[in-house]
Amino acid sequence: MKIRSQFHKKTAVAALLGVGLVAAGGVAVRDSVGSDHQQTALTELNPSIDINDVYVFPGSSDDRIVLAMTIASPIIGNRTMVGSQVPSFDPNALYQLKVDNTMDGVPDLVLQFSFDQLANGTQSFDVIGPVVPRDVGAFGNAVRDAFSTATPVIRRAAVGAMNVTGNLAASTGASAGTIQAFAGLRDDPFFVDLEQFFRIIPDRRPTQGPLSQIGGVIPPSEGVLASAFRPKCTNGVPNAGQTQFDRARGCAVDFLRGINALAIVVELPESQLTQGRSGGQIGVWATVSQ
Question: Is pTM beyond 0.90 here?
Answer without folding.
Answer: no
